[in-house]
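Agenda item 2: 2-oxoglutaric acid complex prediction
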Amino acid sequence: MLLQGFEMPEDDKNRTDFSNPPANLPPDPSLVRPEARELRGFRVYEGWLTPEEQAGLVTDLREILRKAPLFSPVTPSGAQMSVRMSSAGNFGWMSDAKGYRYAPHHPQGSAWPPIPPVLTALWGALVPQARPPETCLINYYGPEAKMGMHQDRDEGDLSQPVVSVSLGDEALFRIGNLERGGKTESLWLRSGDVVVMEGAARLRYHGVDRIAAGTSLLLKQPGRINLTMRVVTPSRVD
Ligand SMILES: O=C(O)CCC(=O)C(=O)O
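Presented output:
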């Protein structure tokens, strides 16, 4: 039940047949990746992942979520988030009455599964100077889910980037300022798009206002997956 939003189409003729893609495709040297465009310091790579890579990633995610099922986090003030979450990597992001934090275990007690190699390769290609990612937060948005404006600041080393991958239905992504409030700008993120938040833009407020259900054929049901890779631990001072 927890995996339903991620199942690939098997018998729907209107959808591309990605039903049995290889989990990790070999790099194709002839593949030309898109250049970034910049919006308020966020680097946006439209269509960075090919449809085949997206489908392979969904296969990887299905396996991850079998071991670390999605759960519905509750904010410290007691509100249930509309986005369901899980994680891969050494840590997973958690929220409950005790606050926001990273934890080494899923709420059910198991370690988080490893981050899929296609994602660590993407990180290496787009932020080669960064430390390796220590977590990949998996956000699942149903058609009604959204995410309020927030900063990503629970990590121990804010000099390290956040790399965000969109899969499935389009999302209206809003970028704000370094402090709450003020004018904002929005863009639609589509399946395969990647956003890099780093440097001066790392702490910009951002959020997701809505999902345009049914705009992608990648997932079996309407909805969106967002993956954000981050470094969690403080940098070592030797
Ligand atoms: O879903 C998105 O595109 C953004 C996710 C996000 O802001 C977060 O996980 O902190």
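Discussion summary: Residues 209 and 221 are 20 Å apart (CA to CA).
Owner for follow-up: CH.
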